[in-house]
Amino acid sequence: MLKSEKKSLIRFLLIYFGSTFLLFSIASWIFYTSQKHHLLDQQRDALKFESTQVISKLRTLHKTYTSTLTYPVDPFVKSAIYDLDKRYIFGTDKQRDLLTQQEYMVIESKIYYLSKVEPYYLGAAFLLVSKELDEKPIMELKRNIGLFLLSAGMFFALLGLFLGKLFIAPMRESIEKMNHFIQDATHELNTPISTILANIEMLETFGKCKKNDELKRIEIASKTLSLIYEDLTYLNLNHNYYRNIESLDISNLIQERMIYFSVMAEKKNLKFEIEIEPDVVLEIDKNDATRLIDNLISNAIKYNKIQGLLTVILSQDSLRVIDTGGGIEKKDLDTIICRFKRANKSEGGFGIGLDIVNQVVESYDFVLDIHSQIGKGTEVVIRWEK
Amino acid sequence: MGKIIFLCMLFSIGVVAGNITIDDKQQVQEKCLQCHNQEQIPNGLIYRRYLMKYSTKEAMKIAIMKYLKDPKQKNSIMPHPFFSKFSMKEVSDLDDENLKKNIQTFLNTFDLKKNLVLPE
To answer: What is the CATH number of domain A3-134?
Structure first.
């Protein structure tokens, strides 16, 4: 994994885990609080019932005329009675400082309930009852929430890793494409430059010899470089440069470009079969048309076999460029127009030629068809409506 | 001498703590309860009615004082049928100080708090 990929994955996971953790923590806290209140409410209700029991016994006691009045005692519930001025009267648990306005209180491990007594049996205006808080259901609730958070955390961690990989997959693909492009570009630029330099050296060394071959090689290499430059510039500025749409004589343009590529074609001993209908005019920007034709012809030359046939047919509604090269596999036909896609890596190239062709075709609402047979060759057809 | 000092201290503690002395008890007996007993008025019941309504001794003292100084049905805690059975008492000839003292003794005598116990 590349450093940038790692960085992106870590950032994604941090955001993902952070937000997920925050969300789950808040949800768990809300759930815990509501459930805890519910559990406490149950215990409060039980305590409230106990207090009504005590008050009932106080009433009985108030009406009892014996020398000793036995205060009602419950083994699990402590209680105390207070007069109207909140002075302690009697009980099993003296907690005067808890006589506040609150009905219920939870202090440490005890739950308290303060009720008003009316009428004042035995002079008691307040009854404070308390018992040990039953922590078991609350602990169980905490344990269950903890287990849920743990299992959800594990699930979302796995999901996060899966999503993270999905997240960086397009980036990874782009990086790989860029790496291949840089490698191809280096190679593509290196070949013509080396050719030019080597031939210049030969001209200097053997100055008196026939110079035709060397000059042709230099010309081919220079044209290759020029083509690369034009293509890269086109790709770079495609969406930004101003297009001058004009009525362009495509017939003339194709003939010009055929002459331009003739030296390259000669190098491979290609035969031409050219059927150009005269006066085919399209409303198109000249640079777009040149890039379209150049890429089709240069591809047909590049991927043609030695002594092969290059056919160019121009009619009023279409342009056909047919080579007799190795052909494109059927599975690659759908993706061959994608940028950096190269079906045949034995020849040089970036994989941008057909991408440029496709861009021009889409810009002018033309139709692009590619037919190919392995071992026989490829036919590229551009159709337009007159 | 030591015994005298001890008895004095014991008496003082008794007064401060609000305990009933024999004299106080005799005075309440003569001025209040004697008549109650003759007319068979249930003292415990009266105390509990005051206690049930006023809760604190201070509030009870004020309410009893008000009734003793102006013994009318509207100042009494007892229900209407009580007065059809028992006649309304006359205005006390005791001064305020003695009235207060007797009320205090009455309340201490019938105090329920001292009867309260926890089960063994």
So the answer is: 3.30.450
